Amino acid sequence: MDTVERMFAEDAVYASPGLASVIQGRAAIMAAFRAYFAKHPDQVNGDEDVREEGRSVTARWTLRSSSSQRSGMQVIRFNEAGEIDRIDVTDD
Q: How far apart are CA 12 and CA 62, in angstroms?
């Protein structure tokens, strides 16, 4: 998780129905990730149709675990330093 944490800007925003809507700040995002993966330790992720445009990446994603299955789209935006500063996730 340390590598993932370093990818986020300090004031990053993560908006996702899977993580209870909008989370602000790197520390809060990482706490939400840790809680989510503790609840779904066997989760497998897949990304398809990944498209880069400027400082944004859009992808179709799927998540599967023994207790859930989700899919949707995500837009990841990067700041000028190359850090993730916003992720917007939508479910199908």
A: 23
Q: Give the side-chain half-sphere CA count within 13 A for 71.
A: 7
pLDDT in tens, 54-88: 999 999 999 999 988 999 999 999 999 999 999 99
Q: What b/e sequence results for 40-69 when a residue is b if at least 16 CB atoms lie within 10 Å of its CB, and e otherwise?
A: beebeeeeeeeeeeeeebebebebeeeeee
Whether pTM exceeds 0.85: yes
Q: What's the sign of the alpha-carbon dihedral 52, 30, 15, 62?
A: positive
